[in-house]
Amino acid sequence: MEDQAPPGLLVVGRISGLYGVRGWVKVFSETEPRDNILTYQPWYLGAGHKPRELAAGRPHGKGLVARLEACEDRDQAAALVGLEIRIRRDQLPRLGADEFYWADLVGLSVETLDARPLGRVDRVFATAANDVLVVNGDRERWLPFLWDRVIKEVDLDLGRIRVDWDPEF
């Protein structure tokens, strides 16, 4: 398992495989739209979080492929497979009111409307229907990120999310 990203670096994807013999790799992107990952320079890879410039990248089928500077052959590319792609937080576009990145939600406390604690957000992931908050407390809960139906308030300053959720569920 790869180490924790240092403060200020956010995981936006990973190198998922090899593509061809000239240093290209397949990229799994967690950005929306998925090809936004190709607009961020540099990428920070590996345990040392060394910055790497993107030489080229493009959509390919249902995925993405990319080549990093100084990555000229399949052996060099193979050393990158499995690494998470990180960027600096300041590389992300500024957001408007009531907008936030998934990374902003991780670690926030989650409580019901009557202030019953459910735990803290461990991670967020997308499904075909909606995004899901994984909340760890007395047990793990998966809460659909449905604004106004389930998610009633996200207060980044207080580090809290208020939800309309039955704690027994």
Characterise this structure.
There is one protein chain. This protein is mainly β and 169 residues long. The protein folds into two domains: 9-90, Elongation Factor Tu (Ef-tu), domain 3 (Beta Barrel), CATH 2.40.30; 102-163, SH3 type barrels (Roll), CATH 2.30.30. It contains two helices and 13 strands, in the order E-E-E-E-E-E-H-E-H-E-E-E-E-E-E. A hairpin with a 4-residue loop joins strand 8 and strand 9. The mean pLDDT is 92.
Rg value = 18 Å
Following the backbone from N to C, one meets helices and strands in this order, namely: EEEEEEHEHEEEEEE
What structural class should be given to the helix and strand makeup?
Answer: mainly beta
Q: Summarize the biggest pleated sheet.
A: 6 strands, mixed
Q: Please write the CATH class name of the largest domain.
A: Mainly Beta
Please name the CATH architecture of the largest domain: Beta Barrel
Low-pLDDT parts are none
How many helices? 2
What share of the residues lie within helices? under 10%
Which fold does the CATH topology of the largest domain refer to? Answer: Elongation Factor Tu (Ef-tu), domain 3
Give the mean pLDDT.
Answer: 92
Tertiary shape: elongated
Strand content: 35-45%
List keywords for this structure.
169 residues, mainly beta, Elongation Factor Tu (Ef-tu), domain 3, 2 domains, six-stranded mixed β-sheet, five-stranded antiparallel β-sheet, 2 helices
